[in-house]
Amino acid sequence: MFLTLLTSHPSFALAWLLAILFSLTIHEFSHALVGKWRGDRTAERDGRLTLNPLAHLDWFGFGAMLLLGFGWAKPVPYNPYNLRDPKWDAVRIGLAGPLSNLFVAIFAGLLLRFLFATTIITTLNLFVLFLIFLVIFNLSLAFFNIIPIHPLDGSKLLPAIFSDPKYRTMREFVALRGPQILMILIFVSLLTNLNVFFFISTPAFALCDALIGGSCTGVLYSIF
């Protein structure tokens, strides 16, 4: 998407880039902030309790995102021994990122709806495009990261809920095979036209439509 925009509409590519940087920064900052709230200052000492995007970028992952449309940021570290409730605080830290993305998407979507409803903005411009990208990116990040597979944020939830020894086989299977299945899905998505992540894109675009009171897909089609 980025390369397509860069060659056809450079200004649109800038809006895409800013939306991605903002979304990733909020996501990682939220991990660090909740970690500090729960008693661990590892992320803060590592320079991650900041809204500076450069502190959170994994340059290889960011490059992959620009070239392939899929990438990652630097994981936020935490020490479970410093947490007040290690079992559930790990879940809180993990889910802080997706929840922050959900809040950003809701705010951006409702702001866009308000601007159009009051006719403050009536046409597609860079600010509108930035808000649309914010909604779509943040919803996609939120739904993708709650998948309960390592290294995604949702992986913290599975062992907390199924901590009983009787679930050991299931936990081991998910820990071992989950990342392999995830990588296969990612490669299939990158190498084919199959929408293997329909369980993410479908609710993301449905919620996007509900937030802005229109068609997010239609806006994207008008651009591409």
Our measurement of the CA-to-CA distance between the termini, rounded to an integer number of angstroms, reads 9 Å
- Which regions are unreliable across 5 or more consecutive residues at pLDDT < 50? none
The main β sheet shows up as:
none
Number of helices: 10
Look at the structure and give the mean pLDDT: 92
Helix-strand sequence: HHHHHHHHHH
Beta-strand residue fraction: under 5%
Give a structural overview:
By secondary structure, the chain is mostly helical. The chain has one domain. 68% of the residues lie in helices and 0% in strands. Helix 2 packs antiparallel against helix 5 and helix 2 crosses helix 6.
Which key terms come to mind for this protein?
single chain; 224 residues; mainly alpha; 10 helices
Quick description:
This protein has 224 residues and is an all-alpha fold.
How would the blueprint of this fold be written?
Elements lengths: L1 H7 L1 H28 L4 H4 L13 H10 L17 H32 L8 H20 L11 H5 L6 H24 L6 H15 L3 H8 L1
